[in-house]
Amino acid sequence: MAGLLGLPFAFAHHFSPANTLPALALYRQHFRPSPTLSQPYAMVAAAVVCADTDEQARFLAGSGALSFLLLRSGRPGRVPSPEEAASYPYNDLERAYLEDRQATQIIGAPDTVRQDLASLLEATAADELMLTTMVFDPADRLRSFELVAALASVPQPLDY
Hints:
It is a single chain. The chain has seven helices and four strands, in the order αβαβαααβαβα. It is α/β, with parallel strands linked by helices and 160 residues long. It has a single domain (2-15, 32-152), classed as TIM Barrel, CATH 3.20.20. Strands 1, 2, 3 and 4 form a four-stranded parallel sheet that branches. Strand 1, helix 2 (20-30) and strand 2 (42-50) form a beta-alpha-beta unit. The protein is globular, with a radius of gyration of 17 Å.
């Protein structure tokens, strides 16, 4: 609909990564210039957890992963701590589900995040990214955003 109306389009990659590229292709295919936009403009929302090391980022990301798993299994509640997530008794199906989900998220140290964001931008040709970070501690969320923001101020451009 956004394409037919000549409006910008945003897609929640972090909710439905398998549909990101098809949705963007449909939007661009059906885009009609309008008084609002002369050409397509797409934003992609992505889940990102950035920390000083890849290991720390994976540890912090466990909170959001377990929270999502509990929500999907009908047991919503507060976001668990990373320690609670690390000690949770996952069964094989739950572990596989979370590994599959986290494979489409951007989790790591700044260099890892830079590479993964560049790959996402290359694959989607997005004009804009919206990043969300679901971790237990607000200080860790702020640190993640600070690390990602620092990537934007590095003299070298993202490789996309």
